[in-house]
Amino acid sequence: MSIVIAGSGAFGTALAIALAGPQPVILLGRDAGQMTKVEQTRRHEARLPGATLPDGIMATANADCLADADIVLLAVPMQQLGAFLDRNAASLANKPCVACCKGVDLQTLSGPVDMIAQRLPGATPAILTGPSFAADIAVGLPTALTLACADTDAAKHLQEALNRPKLRLYRSADTTGAQLGGAVKNVIAIAAGACIGAELGESARAALVTRGFAEMQRLATALGAETETLMGLSGLGDLILTCGSPQSRNFRFGLSIGKRDPFDASITVEGAATAQALRKIAVQRGLDLPVLDAVNALVTGQTEIGAVLQSLLSRPLKEE
Ligand SMILES: NC(=O)c1ccc[n+]([C@@H]2O[C@H](COP(=O)([O-])OP(=O)(O)OC[C@H]3O[C@@H](n4cnc5c(N)ncnc54)[C@H](O)[C@@H]3O)[C@@H](O)[C@H]2O)c1
Ligand SMILES: O=P(O)(O)OC[C@H](O)CO
Prior knowledge:
- This protein has about 325 residues and is α/β, with parallel strands linked by helices.
- The chain has two domains: about 5-175, Rossmann fold (3-Layer(aba) Sandwich); about 180-315, N-(1-d-carboxylethyl)-l-norvaline Dehydrogenase, domain 2 (Orthogonal Bundle).
- The chain has helices at about 10-20, 30-40, 80-85, 90, 110-120, 135-140, 150-160, 175-195, 200-220, 225-230, 235-245, 250-260, 270-285, 290-300, 305-315; strands at about 5, 25-30, 45, 50, 55-60, 70-75, 95-100, 125-130, 145-150, 165-170.
- The strands form two sheets. It has an eight-stranded mixed β-sheet with strand order 5-2-1-6-7-8-9-10, with helices on both faces. Strands 3-4 form a two-stranded antiparallel sheet.
- Helix 1 (about 10-20) links the parallel strand 1 (about 5) and strand 2 (about 25-30).
- The termini are far apart.
- The structure holds nicotinamide-adenine-dinucleotide and SN-glycerol-3-phosphate.
- SN-glycerol-3-phosphate (G3P) binds next to helix 8, helix 11 and helix 12.
- It catalyses: sn-glycerol 3-phosphate + NAD(+) = dihydroxyacetone phosphate + NADH + H(+); sn-glycerol 3-phosphate + NADP(+) = dihydroxyacetone phosphate + NADPH + H(+).
- This is Glycerol-3-phosphate dehydrogenase [NAD(P)+].
- It is found in: Cytoplasm.
- One of its GO terms (molecular function) is glycerol-3-phosphate dehydrogenase (NAD+) activity.
């Protein structure tokens, strides 16, 4: 069984560390110099400082390895996924392709599973998602994730092939719910961070996250997701983790907005582009999503934190 993880960022590297052992794992990056260094030093200080790569991982920038893979995990950022799939379509054509990214593509308004299905009609699209910080996985802390795949037999096979003692996988057939939970929670985490950054308090954050969760359910069920999926690891579970921890980059990005501080643009913040994509979907579908809309307005610079707060608090009174 050959597993290739495409995308040698923090998450791809952490997954490689967790999965290597019973069989070798190939970690595929795009920078040949960096991958040679990772292969030789057994460390990836740029993306996952402090972690050591076990012997079972081979790091490479040679995408030829995709052709021989039995399972491909796609850990490139969401806005780069389409280009990666197009570039490697011939190698990926008939394989199980497991998205490990979270978001909605701004160009096509597709989530990662739908994007794999659209661009690789012969592949088996799946997603691995849920509450998981790369740094936790890399040091072997226990983590539970959702493995969603519409094909039941393929889902069982992937669950068995990717489950590990410290990486517990729960199976689901609801790829729509799994991909939307992971996408929306990042946007709500930006709102939660902004709330704390603007010193509005923990009570306000709890209210915002709860109302944001209602929006996640409204949006995702309108697009065909099952409510149970959103109540699970890929929805509520990841929302709790990301909105409550400064380890989250989306939360920290929100903090910087709330404090009116600059933020390092090189840091991956999936919720920023996804907020814009979700706004387009909401307009198309006529959905009322005030928290998600507010984050879109903030990240696109249409408004600032004080005005957002005023607008959220002055909405008409309604039933919960
Ligand atoms: N870091 C985490 O804790 C974590 C946990 C769960 C899920 N994720 C998800 O994993 C995905 C990747 O996040 P990350 O934390 O690894 O990001 P990262 O910023 O650490 O790394 C991103 C990696 O993608 C590579 N990349 C960028 N464009 C590429 C392209 N066109 N082709 C190939 N590679 C490309 C970069 O070189 C980099 O190695 C995101 O969708 C994120 O939401 C991250
Ligand atoms: O650092 P973030 O905000 O990208 O979150 C990482 C993971 O998605 C948490 O499950």
